[in-house]
Amino acid sequence: MDLYEYQARELLEEQGIATPKAVFAQNSHEVAQAAEGIGYPCVVKAQVKIGHRGQAGGVRLAKTRDEAILVSEDILPMTIHKHKVSGVLVAEAKNILHEYYVSISVDRSSRDFDVLATANGGTEVEEIAREHPESVKRLHIDALEDFDIEAATKMAESIGFYHADVDQAAQILLKMWRCFKENDATLVEINPLAKIGDPDDESSKTLCALDAKISLDDNAAFRHDGWKRFADPVHVDPFEQKAREHGLHYVHLNGSVGVIGNGAGLVMSSLDAVSGAGEDQGTNVKPANFLDIGGGASAQVMCDSLEIVLSDPQVESVLVNVYGGITSCEQVAEGILEALDKLGSSKPLVVRFDGNAAAEGLSILARADRANLHVAQTMEEAAQQAAHLAANGREVR
After folding, report:
1. Among 177, 293, 302, 387, which residue's CB has the most CB atoms within a 10 Å radius?
2. CA distance 105 to 121
């Protein structure tokens, strides 16, 4: 679950991390009230769950009440990178002396946690990281280890807080770690973590989180009653909502290959295989979703899953990757045919079965003799086929 900036700020503030005074507003009247209370100049920031808002015109400075109203009336109707603006954050403008980037995230490849930081924060941090990778400092934390003040201090020293107090930076890193662990987060990012204050008054200089991005692990929601405050009734993804109603683990992505598998690890590997195939073929084809049907999935579960995936207009092909353990590939095959009969879809499906009743499942599909059903022997072969079919479907459109 990705949070809006104003929601992420709440979690940082609960850990004692300083943020500018700010108010969330959903119309120009609320913006005017917020701006009057905060004072001028203030910053009006679009609230969307995606980055690069500033480059899209979603972050603007206002020096008067009328400016704040006019700016908000420009921003509120916007759609930024296909994300509809849900409101604005009216925030106190700060005198920025220097910008840093700091984040803590789950590193799935190394199966640990990563602390990333650079003294070159701000809107161009990705470009700077590509051009000057030596400027980015990384610390791996084993899943069974902790991140203490000693490690935080060493990290702060290595980053190069040129205009900032190392001890203060270390405390912020430690508080970010607590926010990350206590909230079952997969990402806690501050960009920029800014050194603010009067350049001629050393005592006024301090670190402040000017922007934040936090993602929470949906699977841990049962441990956090407080997450109910982060519900987004205005922008509920219809595909994710339908999947929840069927008890399915689904995440909507921005690609053209639907991906269905059993087991989170297998589905994640399938996503990587599809992305890799798209790169190999030079088509930039990406996965359209993550959908885990779980163990022991029935024909009905498979039918429900395909119905959700195929109803997504961005999907041009579907990869079904199932390893039969508790799950019977025979039942999965029956569910696939049932879904195709029900939906009448002509979009191509690439199926890879292995394990329990794989031969029986493939036999059922072969006897059905459907023109849009394709069979692959390996996950890599299936991903290559699905990516190729999606690219062809996109070109036809």
Report:
1. 387
2. 17
DSSP single-letter state for residue 163: T
Q: Can you tell me the distance from the alpha carbon of 306 to that of 319, in angstroms, rounded to the nearest whole number?
A: 10
Q: What is the pLDDT of residues 187-197, one digit of tens each?
A: 999 999 999 98
The CA distance from 150 to 153, in Å, is 5
pLDDT for 163 equals 56
What confidence category does residue 396 fall into, taking pLDDT thresholds of 50, 70 and 90? very low
- Whole-angstrom Cα distance, residue 6 to residue 87? 10
101 is catalytic: yes
Q: Which of 139, 143, 163 shows the shortest CA–CA distance to 151?
A: 139
User: From residue 296, how far is each of 271, 273, 292, 324 by CA, in Å?
Assistant: 21, 24, 12, 9
Number of Cβ within 10 Å of residue 357's Cβ equals 18
Classified as helix, coil or strand, 261 is strand
Q: Which of 4, 101, 250, 323 is catalytic?
A: 101
Does residue 4 have an active-site annotation?
no
Strands (E), the chain: 22-25, 42-46, 59-62, 79-80, 83-84, 88-92, 96-107, 112-118, 136-142, 185-196, 206-209, 212-216, 249-252, 257-261, 289-292, 317-324, 349-355, 373-375
Residue range 284-308, pLDDT digits in tens: 999 999 999 987 777 888 889 999 9
Cβ within 8 Å of residue 202, ≥6 positions away: none
Sheet holding 59-62, edge to edge: 22-25, 88-92, 42-46, 59-62
What is the per-residue pLDDT for 343? 86
Q: Is residue 130 pLDDT above 80, yes or no?
A: no
Q: Is the pTM of this model over 0.70?
A: no
What's the full length of the chain, in residues? 397
